[in-house]
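Tutorial, part two.
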Amino acid sequence: MVTNNKIINRIILYCLVLLTVVTTVFPFLVMLSTALKPNEEALEVVPHLIPKTFTLQHFKDVLNPDIFPFWKYFMNSFQISFFTALVSVIIGTLGAYSFARLEYKGRGLIQKGVLLIYMFSGILLVVPLYKMVTLAGLYDTKLSLIITYLVLTMPVTLYMLGNYFRTIPQSLEEAAIIDGLSRFQVIYKIIVPLSIPAIASVFIYVFMIAWNDYLFASIFIVSEKNMTLPIGLSSLFHTKHYVWGRMMAASLLSAIPVIVLFSLVEKYFAGGLTEGGEKG
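Running the prediction step on this input gives:
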């Protein structure tokens, strides 16, 4: 009886996993299928997941600057996302370490206050951030988006890194300080190497938020030279070049940086770094 229950539970688990995989992967399969179909086939009443005729013309059109300035929008998004993630990790490392290790008056209040921003949805922050950006003379600049994304992501950065830093034995830091290391040397020679998985996770999280944002980019950016990919894809809907195949091709290409970034840092997610530090 016990064995039968285990088999049933395992079957249910596998079914749920399969359902999750299918619902996650299916939209991307539809996007890829549409991007590889000619226009006429993509608009058929009865669609087919596997194209009858394969074509790469939509990808060629998207990469054609005369039709769609993909590379300009791509570089704008990449610059904004990369520098936002980099600055977030640098500032977040210092701030999270102070929350996790240093003792000072009001630390708990400040730590809890940082998370208050998540009591408000992004749309409620548009007006105050818009006023701050315009008063600072940063409207329609990439810097305005970098600052905005830092404000939005810093609470999670501090929370994630702070919790990870607390798992690192203080004995490692105490030994390093006895050996003559300063507090900053302890952070970048002891804490940072042992926290690569958390730092990589934070970097990817911030990068994805900045890369996929549409709300703030559509409000703070008006000139084409500073537009990001989400805004560029939206503008493609309102041009004579709008076809479903091109939209799907552009959407697939815009997902490549996140996939590549995750693949590059995936090895750092393996556990054991802290344990190795303890043994050493």
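The chain has two domains: 2-55, 62-279. In part three we will examine how such features are distributed along the chain.
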